[in-house]
Amino acid sequence: MISFRPALHALKQACGLPQAEIESAAVERWVVAPSETRFIPPAKFLPGQIERIREAEFGSVASVVRDFRGGYDAVQEDTLGFRLKDVDLVDGVLYASGAIKHLRPRHSKWPAYLQPREVVSGALYESWVGNTWFGSWLSDDCLTYRLAEKYGAPVTTTMTTGGHVPTYESKLGIKPRRINRAHFEHLILFRDLSQNSHKKARADQFRERVIAGIPHDAHAGVFLLRGSTGMRRVLANERAIAEELASKRGFRILDPSMAPVEEIVSACAGARVVAGVEGSHLVHGLLVMPPDATLFVVQPPERAVSALKVITDRQGQTFAFVVATGGENEFIADAGEIQRTLDLVSG
User: pTM of the entire structure?
Assistant: First the structure.
């Protein structure tokens, strides 16, 4: 049979009508973990840093600044599970009873599709952001996998994996069924955005699994080079900053894009500070650094992000930052400011 669901959703979008969230089609929903309230601590930063922020990502400047300043209680929402029936997965999109969920960009522009012949059931743990940014896959989708394996057979649309992904999947025991086109008789989804204690426990388990069997020792810190990887955000004096931290504070320097997971984990699992330019590469260190460690981030002035602080807040760790000066794609950090900020952390 032919389904015109893509055309119907495109028409609604063209008319400015809201698209129904796929969770609205659930025949059953439950609370995986209840909400809770947690105090949000302030980050460590010098006077005048906040004022340099011109633009923010994943939120307004005001919301990012609020996260950085901290000093308030925040409600961490329920972690929820949903069971849906008769869901089509076609071209990276889930279609269910007038609702839709995009997991990745569509390749086809056709307004219709032939309904999938393969009929399956499973629990999906992937997300749009996880398919877009490696750091989100590592920090969020890998934790949601623990829910998927508990409530169903884990499935994902990711067909091929490369880079560091296979090693992480192996160490974490992630063994999903990979499907790019199917009709789900039953599909389980999760709303796993909350940074509650249940997610913290899964992150703690993540660390234990990943560092198991990898030798590591306690040391001052590691600077993870970003270089020109990912979206263009170049710290022009990155190498000089890293070398100064190495000479004055005993930091190690590592380029995660050129190192296997075992080497990255060995360098980060005992580091008192994990430092670098804001980006997904820092998540390597963030998720395995000690429970009392600090994440130190050089923020681009036109792309300030508090997403990594949300994780350190959840884990009870320290978040510190400086805001660089310059433009959107290339900027410079002040070495003296970095040293004084690290003094705030150690003092």
Answer: 0.92
